[in-house]
Amino acid sequence: MSEQIRDVIVVGSGPAGYTAAIYLARAGYQPLVIAGAITPGGQLVNTTEVENFPGFPQGIMGPELMEQMREQAEHFGAQVEYDDVIEVDLTGSVKTVTTDAGEHYSARAIVITTGSQYRKLEVPGEREYAGRGVSYCATCDGFFFKDKPIIVVGGGDSAMADADFLTRYGSSVTIVHRRESFRASKIMVDRAKANEKISFELNAVVSEIHGGPQGVESVTVQDTVTGETRQIDVNGIFVAIGHTPETSFIEGELKLDEDGYIVVEGSSTQTSQPGVFAAGDVVDKVYRQAISAAGMGCRAALDAQAYLTALE
Asked: Where in the numbering of this chain does the FAD/NAD(P)-binding domain appear (predicted)?
């Protein structure tokens, strides 16, 4: 049990968490960052080359970017612990977090940046070819599939938007959806249908992903009505079946929306509990970019700093 009451704890890492830690550390608050046990650094540690983060004209590898952010936070006085928060008490003037290792930490302010996880297909080959043909971010990875056949899996607005965006790069884009009808809005479906580079495989699911040393080469598609299967040659598979925010540890401590994302007040990062702030993909279900998460992490740090200053 840690007896020290800290000024601020950052729960989570990634661009939002490390940026918040940099700002808070430079302000003299010596934040504790509980970065996660398995994938500290968030989604970017599973990303290859990042070409759209400002300041890196030649691009930078996702893990390297997160490593540099972590080093910068520590340089200014942040402390990083590699553990998972499993329980929190966010009421009162002093908040407490409990980690998987059984440690208890207390602070006057908390910044939550635990992000969200892409929903997976959970089919053979998906994990093996993640980053080598299987992607969950069209705007991040579309460029790597220039003049190559692409599949987008999903039937919502995100899938339609991704398919439309990917026609800028791919030789063709096929939308694979398990039903005949779509969850997407009519305008998004109509736009996809009007794009001559987009075709549809309806009442179908991807049941297996195949590839070789160079990455994905084909997929097995199964008809959901007849059960019949066939192979489609493809080099890029973009999975757009939704996200799951990492908020299970909160358990009623904060107001969440119907999808489980943390609700903040207006354009601020203030949550439903005073002294608790949230940033990044655990809040943002629209943009989900490293640079927008970093910007929100900055805002959360400034909001937390203002809160702590008011307590003095």
From this structure: 7-297
